[in-house]
Amino acid sequence: MAKKKILIVDDEPDILKTMKIFLETEGFDIITAVDGVSALDKIRKDNPDVVILDIMIPKADGYKVCRIIKFDKKRKVTPVIIFTAKAQESDERMAKECRADAYITKPFQPDVLLGKIKELLEYAE
């Protein structure tokens, strides 16, 4: 079975590095982006199985990127996990409005993130 590909979008290098190492040790193929525009380019080019998306990123925020993914006929089934330090109810409501599949706040529990990724991959198949 081919490795599942995950795109992690975050403008904080330490978070990108930590998540990349963690998810690679769990057997995933990881690609990264640091802003909304490069994230959309990588989604089109690499066709990831899951997108983990920070809200506060440059060039196009996570909500906008999520909306673009979910309104694209070819990619609307791609699971999107909003991954953010913003823990307000209004932020979570915005994530639902842009059709995100999950909402996880930082700092994160690795097992919670991994469980959500596996659940969304199972559901997507």
Automatic annotation (TrEMBL):
GO molecular function: DNA binding
Superkingdom assignment: Bacteria
Sites of 4-aspartylphosphate modification: D54
Entry keywords, A to Z: DNA-binding, Phosphoprotein, Transcription, Transcription regulation, Two-component regulatory system
SMART domains the record matches: REC
Alphabetical list of InterPro entries matching this protein: Bact_response_regulator (IPR050595), CheY-like_superfamily (IPR011006), Sig_transdc_resp-reg_receiver (IPR001789)
Residue ranges of domain Response regulatory in the record: 5-121
GO terms, biological process: phosphorelay signal transduction system
Keyword match Transcription: yes
This protein's name: Two-component system response regulator
